[in-house]
C-alpha cells in the first residue's frame, strides 16, 4: 500500500519513535499521545482490519502488545491500561491499517473506560441477540 502511513513507518520509509519490533509487527509511539507512553502496534504487512489479517500476523501482533505492556509497566509505572482497536469509520478508525492502541492510565487521570465509548443499548432482548450469534 504505497500511500499508507503505517506501511511507511513499518518499512522505515518515514521516521517514527519505534520502541519494539518482532518479525511481523512494529510498535511505535503515537504522534499525538493520549497519555505518556501511548503506543501503536501494527502488522508490517498491510491489512485494514483484523478480518484481513492472517492468523499468524494477529498472534504476532498480540505477542508484541504483551511485551510492550510489560515494558511500559516496568519503566513508566502506570496504574492501568486501555488496550484496543478502532475498527472502520463507525468505530473511530482514522488510519486504515490495523493498529492496537496501548494507552497507559494513571489513577485520577480523568479518563474513562470502554464503557464510555458509546451508549446505544439494543432494542432486542439478550435472548434474541444470543440466538443470532450462537
Ligand atoms: P485511529 O483513530 O485510526 O485508531 O488512530 C490513529 C492514530 O494514529 C492516532 O492516535 C494518531 O495520533 C496516530 N497517528 C496518525 N498518523 C501518525 C503518524 O504519522 N505517526 C505516528 N506515530 N502516529 C500517527
Ligand atoms: Zn498499510
Describe this structure as you would to a colleague.
- By secondary structure, the chain is an alpha+beta fold.
- The chain has a single domain (5-133), classed as HIT-like (HIT family, subunit A).
- 27% of the residues lie in helices and 19% in strands.
- It is built from three helices and five strands; from the N terminus they run αβββαββα.
- The chain has helices at residues 5-10, 55-76, 126-133, and strands spanning 18-21, 25-29, 39-43, 80-84, 100-105.
- Strands 1-2-3-5-4 form a five-stranded antiparallel beta sheet.
- The longest helix is centred in the middle third of the chain and has 22 residues, at 55-76.
- It is globular, with a radius of gyration of 17 Å.
- The mean pLDDT is 97.
- Bound molecules: guanosine-5'-monophosphate and zinc ion.
- Residues 1, 4, 6-7, 46, 97 line the site of zinc ion.
- The site of zinc ion (ZN) has 6 residues, from helix 1.
Q: Which labels suit this protein?
A:
134 residues; alpha+beta; HIT family, subunit A; five-stranded antiparallel β-sheet; 3 helices; globular; binds guanosine-5'-monophosphate; binds zinc ion
Amino acid at each position: 500500500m504505497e500511500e499508507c502511513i503505517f506501511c511507511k513507518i513499518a518499512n522505515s520509509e518515514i521516521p517514527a519513535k519505534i520502541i519494539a519490533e518482532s518479525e511481523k509487527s512494529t510498535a511505535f509511539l503515537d504522534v499525538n499521545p493520549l497519555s505518556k507512553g501511548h503506543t501503536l502496534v501494527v502488522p508490517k504487512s498491510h491489512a485494514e482490519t483484523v478480518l484481513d489479517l492472517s492468523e499468524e500476523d494477529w498472534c504476532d501482533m498480540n505477542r508484541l502488545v504483551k511485551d510492550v505492556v510489560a515494558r511500559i509497566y516496568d519503566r513508566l509505572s502506570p496504574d492501568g491500561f486501555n488496550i484496543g482497536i478502532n475498527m472502520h469509520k463507525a468505530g473511530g478508525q482514522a488510519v486504515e491499517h490495523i493498529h492496537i492502541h496501548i494507552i497507559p492510565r494513571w489513577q485520577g487521570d480523568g479518563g474513562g473506560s470502554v464503557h464510555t465509548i458509546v451508549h446505544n443499548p439494543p432494542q432486542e432482548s439478550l435472548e434474541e441477540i444470543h440466538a443470532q450469534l450462537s
